[in-house]
Amino acid sequence: MSRALPKGSRLRAELLPLLLFAALAAAPFIAEALGEGFYVKQLARVMIFAIAALALDLVLGIGGMVSFGHAAFIGVGAYTVGIMAEHGIVSGFAQWPLAIAFSGLAALMIGALSLRTSGVYFIMITLAFAQMLYYTATSLSRYGGDDGLTIWDRSAFAGLLDLSDSHVFYGVVWLVLLAAYLFLRRVARSRFGRVIAGCRENERRMQAIGYDTYRYKLAAFTLSGALAGLAGVLLANHTEFVSPAYMAWTRSGELIVMLVIGGLGSLHGAILGAIVFLMLEELLAGLTEHWMLVMGPLVILIVRYARGGLVRLLPGGRAGPS
Amino acid sequence: MDPILLAVQALNGLQLGVLLFLVAAGLTLVFGIMDFINLAHGVQYMLGAYFAATLTGWTGSFLLGAALALPAAAAAGLLLERLVLRHFYDRDHLDQVLATFGVIYFVNEGVRLLWGPAPLSFQVPAAIDFSVELFGGATYPAYRLAIIAAGLVVAAGLFLLVRGTRFGMLVRAGADNPRMLQSLGVDIRRLFMLVVALGAMLAGFAGLMAGPLLSVQPGMGDGVLILAFVVIVTGGLGSIEGALLGALLVGLVDTLGRSFLTDLLRLVLAPATANEVGPALASMLIYVVMAVVLVVRPTGLIPAKRAS
Q1: Which residues of A touch B42 (CB under 8 A)?
Q2: Is CB count within 10 Å lower at the N or C end of chain A?
């Protein structure tokens, strides 16, 4: 759709993502200058969830598939790193591809079953399967069960990268986020992406003109799960810990809330939503221990009144890539 | 396999199934009529337990506490409908999911604020706190039998209500074709309010009965909500018979799986492997059942007939 827009608004549509990434790149320098190095770690976490929210935007925002189980794929990615590290395999060259493969595989299996249905069924089934993985994680007594698993070493890259340096780690997360964003933007603008978006608009019509929509949706779901798994890899390295809590169903819900705050289907809205949601959480949690008492009604009000999310309110926001 | 243990676990499974049915019934009725997905339904289960525990403490009588907790749970349901749900009837499922997700945040935290984060003490009523001899020397707590009995009575009453009364006729008609019902001059919003209140009361009833067995604490409804989803997906969305069948299936499979799967695996696997795989597999079992049902019958075991 962006192609049809006049030149000026297209420029503005590119401006917001550009500003976002520039701000995220500058943030650690500013934080250090202000002597608030703590925020570097916080922002890395925000960007990791932004990657997961981006992954969800592909299926939910662009494809219209309301997956209520994406936290499970983050968990599969994180657990792969944790379990491999527990067995002494700390090389990122082994951990990362395998984690992405496993979470993609989990998404492929869950998607293959869930996509046989649609609508409310799909929401409940993705939620149920995610809960299954959650309980499986809690029953892995060998890997910490309920208590989780401490990761003693972050992923090693043969001395090329030292992830235990918080700035290097921040840079890696920033690059992964940028790569994920650019990649998904390409995907959204490709024929594949347009078929997925077509399924959201009217799946029957897509079938009538000859697309096997099930396969397209399953491919998108698998891709999204694999990317969420990559977010899990980063999260495990960030916290140096994995636990079933990463897969809690409320996490999946929060990912959707991030998307809705930012705006569905625009991709950069997912990043914006993750930033706003997690900052808000931080802010409220700083004010009161009962921050959920405020966040709950806030979510309800946002859903009720702020349709389209923040990207709609910002200049040029209407022009998403899809 | 020990037949006594099997019988005891089957009763436990039946008891879980009955409780799940009470929660799933409201969820599936609300969905059937208004095409509304209410995540906050698990909250009603939690509130039922909290109301009953508190009122039992005040009145000193479990029966009185329970009798007062039921209308309180229904009132909470009505309040929720009035404040939140009704604004989202015309929205898509995503908005409904998110709005009711916000409700869960709020109510769980509100309960934590009012009653504290620690589990509430809620005892099995003394009058019924004994064990019944089954057969061959096996004993079973009378309170759990009472839950099964009460649950089955309520389930029967619900079927009579839905199948045999004017209100039930409207509910069924609403599930079939809400627009037609509205055109015939039925105030469908009022009907929906009643169904929400009924569902809230049923879930609250399940919560107050389960309260003395489990720990009454914030968030206790979340797990039950997801199990209720598994129940209605397996049984067939919008169908009360499906909810019953699904609930009993999930209750029995989960309970029996957890107690016997590891032993069964030992027959084919090395004991150490069985001990490790068994619990993980047992916790996955109901989802496997759900997956199988989905493959064989994507709309559930007994789907509601819907004119779409």
Answers
A1: none
A2: N
Residue type, B302: I
How far CA B264 is from CA of A59, A238, B152, B271, B286, in Å, comes to 40, 41, 31, 10, 17
Type of residue numbered A201: E
The pLDDT score that the predictor gives to residue B306 is 52
Least CA distance to B223: which residue of chain A?
A131
User: Which uninterrupted H or E stretch holds A23?
Assistant: helix A7-33
A300 touches B99 (CB < 8 A): yes
Do A257 and B101 make contact, defined as CB atoms within 8 angstroms? yes
Structure-token pair, residue B205:
């009833």
Gap between the Cα atoms of B220 and B224, Å rounded: 7
**Which of helix, strand or coil describes residue B131?**
strand
Chain center to CA of B180: 30
With beta carbons less than 8 A apart as the criterion, state whether A99 and A233 touch. yes
Whole-angstrom distance, CA of residue B255 vs CA of residue B258: 5
3-state secondary structure of B302: coil
Distance of alpha carbon A277 from alpha carbon B126, whole angstroms: 48
- What is the rounded average pLDDT of the residues A103-108? 97
Residues of A in contact with B97 (CB under 8 A): 66, 68, 123, 253, 256
Tens digit of each residue's pLDDT (9 = 90 or more) over A251-310: 999 999 999 999 898 899 999 999 999 999 999 988 888 889 999 999 999 999 887 788
To the nearest whole angstrom, how far is the Cα of A150 from the nearest Cα of chain B? 20
B79 touches chain A (CB under 8 A): no
Best B90, B97, B297 member to test A by mutation, with max A CBs in 10 Å, is: B97
Give yes or no for B231 touching A (CB within 8 A).
no
* Residues contacting B163, CB < 8 A, separation 6+: none
In one letter, which amino acid is A40? V
**Whether the Cβ atoms of residue B253 and residue B286 lie closer than 8 Å to each other:** yes
Taking the C-alpha atoms of residue A84 and residue B221, their distance in angstroms, rounded to an integer, is: 35
**A239 exposed, middle or buried (CB, 10 Å; 0-12, 13-18, 19+)?**
middle
Pair of tokens at residue B183: 């055109």
Please tell me the number of Cα atoms within 13 Å of B140 on its side-chain side. 18
The rounded distance, in Å, linking the Cα atoms of A72 and A60 is 16
Mean pLDDT value of segment B172-194: 86
Question: One-letter amino acid identity for B212?
Answer: P
Cα nearest neighbour of A122 on chain B:
B233
pLDDT tens-digit map of B276-300 = 788 888 888 999 898 889 888 888 8
Specify the amino acid at residue A191: R
* A2 pLDDT more than 60: no
Tell whether B276 is within 8 A of chain A (Cβ): yes
> Within 10 A of B146 (CB to CB), how many other CB atoms are there?
16
Select from A83, A131, A255, A277 the residue whose CB has the most chain B CBs within 10 Å, as the one to mutate to test that interface.
Answer: A131
Q: How many residues in total does chain A contain?
A: 322
| 8 Å CB contact of A131 and B287 | yes
